[in-house]
TrEMBL record:
Keywords: GTP-binding, Hydrolase, Metal-binding, Nucleotide-binding, Riboflavin biosynthesis, Zinc. It is an enzyme of class 3 (hydrolase). Catalyzes the conversion of GTP to 2,5-diamino-6-ribosylamino-4(3H)-pyrimidinone 5'-phosphate (DARP), formate and pyrophosphate. The gene is ribA. Gene3D superfamilies: GTP cyclohydrolase II. Residues 18-180 form the GTP cyclohydrolase II domain. This is GTP cyclohydrolase-2.
Amino acid sequence: MTSEPANPPELKATETGEARLPTQWGEFRIHGFEDAHGSEHVALVMGQPDAAPAPLVRVHSECLTGDALFSQRCDCGPQLEAAMKRIGEAGEGVLIYLRQEGRGIGLLNKIRAYGVQDREGADTVEANEALGFAPDARDYGVAAAMLSTLGVERLKLLTNNPQKVLGLEAAGIQVLERLPILAGRNPHNHAYLETKAAKFGHRLDQD
Ligand SMILES: Nc1nc2c(ncn2[C@@H]2O[C@H](COP(=O)(O)OP(=O)(O)OP(=O)(O)O)[C@@H](O)[C@H]2O)c(=O)[nH]1
């Protein structure tokens, strides 16, 4: 018996519309959502995950530099591609794309944090703190609300981040299994990945 989530997911995201989204990994349906702060998020849905006992799900936080601009400072772009490919191969699943850029501090602040890293040799946590931000300001309640709306409350999660598992579970989602997603390691993101493992407990050991 689990206690009630502190923030009921149904209060946190409103679905605004859906449409076809053909991709190189197959056809998804894209669902738009707006959260209580007016931020816009999307879910890509393939197959009938609401009818599956535990569909494959990726909850991906926005990274404009990695997802769209091919940055090698992080592993975000290759992880996004790997997740879409795995859902495509499974023929079923959900990719939640959360607009929580820069672990929730926003694009412009992430670029300032990159500057602190470049100038001072700070790691990603130290750079956030030097600018007065928490190391990770994300909230997975919105993702949980989106998943609940899509009828997916028990799932297998593609992530290396144990905080993501705990965050979703705290918001009422049952994560039956954590599946590693190891992609995009390169010489420019070595320190970034090591900091994730050392300071956030990311599981990168299956690489
Ligand atoms: N503040 C900050 N954010 C960063 C930096 N590098 C990448 N990010 C952000 O980190 C987030 C990474 O998100 P995800 O890939 O969903 O998640 P994760 O916590 O790495 O965990 P995984 O599920 O294992 O990938 C994105 O929002 C990026 O914009 C950085 O140096 N500083």
